[in-house]
Amino acid sequence: MARDRHDHFYRMAKKEGYRSRAAYKLKQIDARFHIIRRGDAVVDLGAAPGGWTQVATELAGNSGTIVGVDIQQVRSIDGAVIITGDIRSEETIDAIRQAVGSADVVLCDAAPNLSGDWSYDHARSIDLAEHALACAQKILRPGGNFVVKAFQGDLFAGYLRNVRSRFRNVRAHSPTASRKASAEMYIIAKGFRGDE
């Protein structure tokens, strides 16, 4: 936590009322790639502590529908529905569908709890990203957008190919709010192919 006290984005988050410095990553991604529009139905997977859900409510506005999903309990957020559940379970998918019907955007900034064993942490990050993609395929409308975090490593290219096969426009991107030493990369996928 010591490094956080000196971190520009951490201090901004405290000052501006966001629950995490990660809020600025989504703001930067959206400013560049225009992921969320007013009125969109947005599902934020692995939402805790809620920074991305907060930003999604701002970007989609009062006419949007925002759902934050996490296996941990997330404190309520104005303008968002919070679902506590595991995205690998059909029960959670059904709860998401009941809340939004089909989503315009699926977000996932989830990361595994780090063990310090890089290859293990990388594999678990890709596994999480695979589950997020599987969930997105079940709830995204055709043409919808998907943003997911994954750690770079030997499995990253294969995962990126997998996403490319399902979306029309896919980019890997590292926002400036990511820490310099971080191996995290965001995959920005637009134009879900659906059943085409």
Description of the structure:
- The chain is α/β, with parallel strands linked by helices and 196 residues long.
- The protein has one domain (2-192): Rossmann fold (3-Layer(aba) Sandwich).
- 39% of the residues lie in helices and 26% in strands.
- The protein has seven helices and seven strands; from the N terminus they run αααβαββαβαβαββ.
- It has helices at residues 2-5, 8-16, 23-33, 51-60, 90-100, 118-139, 156-164; strands at residues 41-45, 65-70, 80-84, 103-108, 140-151, 167-173, 184-192.
- A seven-stranded mixed beta sheet has the order 3-2-1-4-5-7-6, sandwiched between helices.
- α3 (23-33) runs parallel beside α4.
- The chain is globular and about 40 Å long.
Number of strands: 7
Order of helices and strands: HHHEHEEHEHEHEE
For the largest sheet, list the strands in their spatial order.
3-2-1-4-5-7-6
Instruction: Report mean pLDDT, rounded to a whole number.
Output: 90
Quick gist of this model?
By secondary structure, the chain is of the alpha/beta class. The chain is built from seven helices and seven strands, in the order H-H-H-E-H-E-E-H-E-H-E-H-E-E.
What key phrases describe this protein's structure?
196 residues; 7-stranded mixed β-sheet; 7 helices; 7 strands; 39% helix; disordered N terminus
